[in-house]
Predict the structure.
Amino acid sequence: MTTGSLGLRSSGSYGSLQQQLFQNSSSPIQTTSPIPRKPPKLFKEKEGLFLWICKFAPRKNVGMLLLCVVSAAAFLWVLYVGKGEVAAEQSNRMFAPETVHKYIFSGIESIQKNNVGRSVSIVQPPPPPPPPPPLLPPVYFKGYTLPPGNPCEGFTLPPPPADKKRTGPRPCPVCYLPVEQAIALMSDAPSFSPGVSNLTYIHEENQSKADFGGSNFGGYPSLFQRIDSYDIRESMRVHCGFVRGVRPGHQTGFDIDDSDLLEMESCQGVVVASAIFGAFDLIRQPKNTSEYAKKNACFYMFVDEQTEAFLRNSSELNSSMRIGLWRIVVVHNLPYGDPRRNGKVPKLLLHRLFPNARYSLWIDGKLELVVDPYQILERFLWRKNASFAISRHYKRFDVFVEAEANKAAAKFDNASIDFQVEFYKKEGLAPYSRAKLPITSDVPEGCVIIREHIPISNLFTCLWFNEVDRFTPRDQISFAIVRDKIMSKTNWTVNMFLDCERRNFVIQGYHRDILGRLTPPRASILVHPPPPVILETRHTSPFVPTSTVITTPIKKIPTKRGRERKSKRHRKVIAGNRDPNFN
């Protein structure tokens, strides 16, 4: 209801209207001095009619006629005056202030009655929005302990079997939980990321080489940027490959078809990944994989165009782009000429290729996975409350010894290896000693990486890749310097488990070129890999949960005492007939 609808006027005119009403209340009939005007035409016609009536009507009836006319005029005049007074009085009462206010409030009440259930802004404004709820602290996974009585709780490694003829690395028993229990222990909350909570990546269209090392794919970070990348803080922006594009795998080098990229981005749980470049290895299918892992985990095998052609010629690959559990992803425009360096891209940068995955298990192309991935994650990550796990080297634990072994095996250019080691020496890298405990080794066996995709573990693999991009592709040499620099600024740790435990869930095969040099028949090839594993289920009581211990059978070698005695006698005879001139 507005003032216009009530017959009221605004501000100044409202006061003048009240003043006029007050004047009208004192003199209901307001008279003014007549102004002489020309009589209208209708009045002349009425006057002529009256004279005509008087002329023709009888004289005795004229008096009565006049009397009636006068009476009627008087009655009409009285009636008119009475109505005017009543109207004026009613007008005075209507426009009185108390009447106007009463009328306004009655109108508002009628609006309220007619708008029941609807919000009327004039009468009752809407209530203010409720305050936002207080922010709850983020929830993180903090690990767990196995229930008492679980066989894996106090599991210890048995002593290695006494086999003098086998001195190399071998697998050892590992206590895994059943697949169903391992899956149930997978937490919805991520692990805490100490030191850094927001990690973004540098994108450079125009690159300029400032210092030594680097590439168009990984960028050319200066030595100052390298130092700054080890200054751990809550929000960081670092080089991490794919610097020439916003979307990794799309016009960045290491290019992948858009259809494959969409599928990779949709992987939100566990990803198992491997790669074969240069047709260097044969594809090996995972074994002992649960139905849950087949449906929910993502299995990706990255290959180059050369490997794709080899797979198609051998009739292993068809239009479905799947070989068993593996989804084959063809990579175009490889960033490096060395297949070993190209393999470091998916090995260390899986969090960039699978931005929505929570966990990843990387295995080299020469390995065969023989344990369910959820059991591996439970055993080496969740049970240890770790976000990164890698096995130690089976023999070497010192970076300097590892560098010399790489030079002796001609793994890379010796001068480049020496330059890298000397550079790390100047930064404080020292030979391994017991003073580094609880760190048990500086040299990993990098063919398997188990990790959770959180900012701190992503930062570690980014900086590790930057070292591989700047120096040699021998990632065992650069592992310790990156780990130690991050651990000096945070309480983050790496779970470095035994190499024999790694050999329990992956079986190492031969490269394709070695297989081609082996003598036929091909059935003899199956003898060379480590013996297959067997599953033993231990039941302590019907109330204690079971666990799976994977062991390697040890075949007892029969002794041949007769031959040994004969050989000893033969050696004695030879010793008796020894030529004195022989040195």
About this structure: The CA atoms of residues 205 and 244 lie 5 Å apart. Residues 1-36, 519-545, 552-583 have pLDDT under 50 and may be disordered.
